[in-house]
Amino acid sequence: MNSASPDELALVEKTKELGYAFLGRDSHNVIRINRLVDNKTLEFQLLNTLEFNSTRKRMSVIVRDL
Question: Pairing between strand 58-65 and 30-35?
């Protein structure tokens, strides 16, 4: 799997250990995640990304549950 940073990849791998697998994002910014316990696909629309910066010391995303 490719990622923007090693930290991002580590978070994706850890969430899989906790029962959620990232399936991908399509051209309409719909993110699909598989909940492994019941094999249900969850969908979220990515509305905005607030990139990491040194003032906030965090990155945030705003999503809508589909």
Answer: unpaired
Position with higher pLDDT, 29 vs 7: 29
Burial of 59 (0-12, 13-18, 19+ CB in 10 A): middle
Q: Which residues of 9-39 are buried (b: 16+ CB within 10 A; e: fewer)?
A: eeeeeeeeeeebebeeeeeeeebebbeeeee
Cβ proximity of 3 and 9 under 8 Å: yes
Q: How many residues does the chain have?
A: 66
Q: What is the pTM for the complete model shown?
A: 0.77
Whole-number pLDDT of residue 1? 66
